[in-house]
TrEMBL record:
The protein's name: EamA family transporter
Superkingdom: Bacteria
Keyword RNA-binding listed: no
InterPro entries for the chain: EamA_dom (IPR000620), EmrE-like (IPR037185)
Entries under Pfam families matching the protein: EamA
This protein's UniProt keywords: Membrane, Transmembrane, Transmembrane helix
Family: Belongs to the EamA transporter family.
GO cellular component terms given for this protein: membrane
Record's signal peptide: none
Chain ranges of the EamA domain: 1-136, 152-286
Claim: tRNA processing is one of the keywords in the record: no
TM spans (from-to): 30-52, 64-85, 117-136, 152-177, 183-202, 214-235, 241-263, 270-287
Lineage: Bacteria, Bacillati, Bacillota, Clostridia, Eubacteriales
Length: 288
């Protein structure tokens, strides 16, 4: 059953990237992240009350609280980096880098969670790394500080690093409680973090400037994010992180397909080969 939840997470995550890109064409990415987090937070708590896990709230241990908060902080940092990268760069370039977080996640799962790294896992990691490299547009090296067009790459890399930490910390944080409750708590941390960023950067005035159309896309991306999270952490609670995470990263197929039809972003031959490596590596990891 956890495999089905992991596949659901991949689908909703892929749709989220497209909806988010539509919602931040003119809207500040930090403000958009803060708004969509409200939707995710409300959605996650709705699920808590639907399954009746709110009774476990008073039973959460200090250790679980610690890892849920840390996971939420890592998630918030990943989101802020990811949606900034989406605003500055093409989806077909940003998403592969973000999905490469699976490599670091698997390594951390082996080291920290003592999950074994099988031969298929090692081959998959190499394949995903090669595919990601092929999908990144190479630029001539610049001297000194990065050019404006290169900031998307730095943000995408930051998103990948924080996303891998999120998976590991989240795995530990939800080990002792119902997954929906864990998701709701960590989403609250992300919500506080996102709005603190809006306040500290003095961007509260940008909320009033959001067009109704972009606000609609931002809210829809929040709904799909909530659905993806609920599926993901349900799968993570019952399945090994080294397998759940690769399945979730197959969302890149959904994103690439939608980006072609919605934004008319086409893959070069080299990028298409890279995508093939990423998908192949992911599927190899699922071999027994």
């Amino acid at each position: 059953m956890w495999v089905l939840f992991a596949c659901g997470s991949a689908f909703f995550a892929g749709v989220t990237s497209i909806l988010a890109k539509c919602g931040i064409r003119k809207t500040d990415s930090t403000t958009a992240t803060a708004i969509r987090t409200i939707i995710v937070w409300a959605f996650s708590w709705l699920m808590v009350f639907l399954v009746g896990s709110q009774s476990q709230f008073s039973q959460i241990s200090g250790r679980t609280w610690l890892f849920l908060v840390l996971s939420g902080l890592a998630t918030g940092a990943s989101w802020l980096c990811y949606f900034r990268a989406l605003q500055l760069g093409d989806i077909n370039k940003v998403v592969p880098i973000d999905k490469s977080s699976v490599i670091l996640t698997i390594l951390l799962a082996c080291i920290l969670l003592r999950e074994p790294l099988r031969l298929s896992g090692a081959v998959g990691v190499v394949s995903i790394a090669a595919g990601t490299y092929l999908m990144i547009e190479r630029r001539s090296p610049s001297v000194g500080r990065p050019q404006k067009g290169e900031h998307w790459l730095l943000c995408a890399v930051g998103s990948a690093v924080f996303a891998s930490l999120t998976s590991i910390l989240g795995k530990v944080g939800i080990s002792g409680i119902e997954s929906n409750l864990g998701t709701a708590i960590r989403t609250g941390v992300v919500l506080i973090m996102a709005w603190l960023m809006v306040l500290t950067e003095g961007k509260t005035h940008t909320v009033k400037k959001i067009s109704p159309q972009e606000l609609g896309f931002i809210c829809l991306s929040g709904v799909t994010t909530g659905a993806s999270w609920l599926c993901y952490y349900r799968a993570l609670q019952n399945g090994p992180a080294s397998i759940v995470v690769p399945i979730d990263k197959l969302s890149i197929l959904v994103t690439v397909a939608f980006s072609y039809f919605v934004f008319h972003e086409k893959l070069s031959k080299k990028a298409a080969v890279g995508l093939g490596f990423i998908v192949s590596g992911t599927l190899i990891m699922l071999l027994p």
